[in-house]
Design goal:
By secondary structure, this protein is of the alpha/beta class. The protein is built from four helices and 23 strands.
Length: 253
């Protein structure tokens, strides 16, 4: 892209009869996409073109796009769907120079990702939607080492901030049976409402709702509902210790 015309790069990289159609669609953006790809060498240009202009599993209903960085590993089943209704889905951001740390996204058979807002998935995060499961989100970010796995359904509100080494599950993933052989630990939906900050080394388990404007301190296990505007602490006990004041995404200098 830095040495050859854009049309030459498209023809060279994509062996498909759809080249002309894709090229026309891209050019209609007034050259913005070309400048965007040219100026950021960390983005995987082929993956960007594929997931936004060739992949039938991705439905863009607005201006949002999938922004896959070079360290992003995306496994999208042919029956899965991603609906982009809000901002950009940035996958693999903030990787250290020279590092090979990957970001893993796997969306399995008949799974649905309904992105009403964008997201920032940092390097070394894992995000999976299991078969027939659904994930719905406003804008959220997940820092390095965090793991989000959806077995049934999970909903994130607007402006959810997930720190390092945070685990969010809506299932135990392995059955526990009673004496009659009946499963007693079915998956249960997890809901994290607007403007919730999960700081670091936190585990959120199935069936939990975390109320809006809440903050969860480090080393906390969440297995019960949290009221809105709560500060939650207490290690594995995860109890409400007070009313939350305003928190901000801004860094402390």
């Amino acid at each position: 892209l830095t040495k050859k015309p854009f049309s030459y790069c498209v023809k060279k990289c994509i062996k498909s009869s759809k080249i002309k159609k894709i090229y026309r669609r891209i050019r209609r953006n007034g050259g913005k996409i070309y400048r965007f790809l040219k100026n950021d060498n960390q983005i995987s240009r082929l993956k960007f073109l594929f997931y936004n202009y060739m992949c039938k599993n991705v439905v863009r209903e607005g201006k949002g796009k999938i922004i896959p960085y070079k360290n992003a590993i995306i496994n999208l089943d042919k029956t899965a769907k991603i609906y982009i209704k809000g901002g950009d889905l940035e996958i693999g951001i903030n990787k250290l120079k020279g590092s090979k740390a990957e970001t893993h996204v796997r969306i399995e058979k008949n799974a649905v990702w309904e992105a009403k807002g964008g997201c920032n998935l940092f390097y070394n995060t894992v995000f999976e939607i299991k078969p027939n499961a659904k994930f719905v989100n406003g804008f959220f970010s997940a820092n390095g080492g965090s793991v989000i796995i959806v077995e049934k359904k999970m909903t994130f509100g607007e402006d959810v901030m997930i720190g390092r080494n945070v685990i969010v599950y809506d299932s135990d993933f392995h059955k526990i049976k009673d004496k009659d052989g009946k499963c007693i630990n079915q998956p249960k939906e997890v809901i994290i409402e607007d403007h919730v900050w999960l700081t670091s080394n936190i585990c959120v388990l199935k069936g939990v709702t975390i109320g809006k404007d809440s903050l969860v301190t480090a080393q906390t296990l969440i297995r019960k509902d949290i009221p809105p505007k709560s500060i939650v602490s207490g290690g594995a006990s995860g109890k409400v210790i007070g009313e939350a004041s305003e928190w901000s995404r801004e860094r402390i200098l």
